[in-house]
Structures are given as structure tokens and as C-alpha cells.
């Protein structure tokens, strides 16, 4: 896996993934940024949520659950008054929508992602970040 980061001036950078996708990463105005993209630490959370959500959807589809939507809401805390201001606690809450979803299948998908498949979640956990996973099931209209 590869990536390239190119300086765009001030504290803005263009990040390009090995697959050719690009995003801008920028800082807030009070730190010399122009707010043209997410902060670098926010992109870590976006990657974590994307990785875990990919797993949950994949596992549910593989178990023939009629899933119509999956949303992962992330809440993270960072070390206060410390440099580096690392993540100390991250909560991922999955809102899974579908028709006749089995509660135990959704629970198992979230557990498998957290414990076995989500590289990002496992990496954060090994680094000492406390990670919580929760879920709710919503019946599709």
C-alpha cells in the first residue's frame, strides 16, 4: 500500500492513495489553514469507520441478511494538554437498517469486525486506545 502527500501551501496537503484517489487535508484558520479539508487526525477516524463499516456490511451480506443501510457514528477523545494529543478512547456506534435483520447476526458482525477483521480497529487497540463498539438495528420502511 502506498500514498503520496503533496504540500499545497500553508498547512494544506493533497493526499493521494495508491489507487489514485485524492483528498485535501487542511488545518483550521487559527493554525494557518483555510479549512479546505478534514484535519489529519479526522482522516484517521474516517479510515477506521470505513474499515469497520466495510466489514460489518460484508459479513451481514455474506450471512444473507437483507441490509439496506449502515451508518457508523464515531465519537473520539484525545489526550488533553499533551503532545502528542493521541486518541485515548473511540466509540463506534453502528446503525444498521434492513428487513427482518437478526439481532444476533448484527451483533456477531460488529464483534467479528472489532476482534478479527478490522485492521484499523485492531491497530488502534494495540496502541492502547480504548475502543467501544455498539449497534442498533432499524427495520427498513
Instruction: Report the sheet-strand fraction.
Output: 35-45%
**Largest beta-sheet details:** 3 strands, antiparallel
Helix proportion range: 25-40%
pLDDT average, as an integer? 97
Identify the CATH homologous superfamily of the largest domain: K homology (KH) domain
Name the poorly predicted regions. Answer: none
Determine and state the CATH class of the largest domain.
Alpha Beta
Structural class: alpha+beta
Count of discrete domains: 2
CATH domain fold name of the largest domain: GMP Synthetase, Chain A, domain 3
Concise account of the structure shown:
InterPro entries: KH_dom-like_a/b (IPR015946), OsmC/Ohr_fam (IPR003718), OsmC/Ohrsf (IPR036102). This protein has 141 residues and is α+β, with helices and mostly antiparallel strands.
Description:
The chain has 141 residues and is α+β, with helices and mostly antiparallel strands. The chain has two domains: 1-38; 40-139, K homology (KH) domain (GMP Synthetase, Chain A, domain 3). It has three helices and six strands, in the order E-E-E-H-E-E-H-H-E. It has helices at residues 40-62, 103-117, 119-126; strands at residues 3-9, 12-17, 22-25, 66-78, 87-99, 130-139. The strands form two sheets. Strands 1-2-3 form a three-stranded antiparallel beta sheet, with no helix packed on it. Strands 4-5-6 form a three-stranded mixed beta sheet, with helices on one face. The mean pLDDT is 97.
Amino acid at each position: 500500500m502506498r500514498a503520496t502527500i503533496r504540500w499545497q501551501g500553508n498547512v494544506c496537503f493533497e493526499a493521494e492513495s495508491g489507487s489514485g484517489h485524492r483528498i485535501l487535508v487542511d488545518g483550521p484558520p487559527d493554525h494557518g489553514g483555510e479549512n479546505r479539508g478534514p484535519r489529519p487526525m479526522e482522516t484517521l477516524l474516517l479510515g477506521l469507520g470505513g474499515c469497520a463499516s466495510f466489514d460489518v456490511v460484508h459479513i451481514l451480506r455474506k450471512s444473507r441478511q437483507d441490509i439496506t443501510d449502515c451508518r457508523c457514528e464515531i465519537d473520539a477523545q484525545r489526550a488533553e494538554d499533551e503532545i502528542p494529543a493521541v486518541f485515548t478512547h473511540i466509540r463506534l456506534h453502528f446503525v444498521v437498517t434492513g428487513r427482518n435483520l437478526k439481532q444476533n447476526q448484527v451483533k456477531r458482525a460488529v464483534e467479528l469486525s472489532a476482534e478479527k477483521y478490522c485492521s484499523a480497529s485492531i491497530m488502534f487497540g494495540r496502541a492502547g486506545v480504548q475502543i467501544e463498539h455498539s449497534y442498533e438495528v432499524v427495520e427498513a420502511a
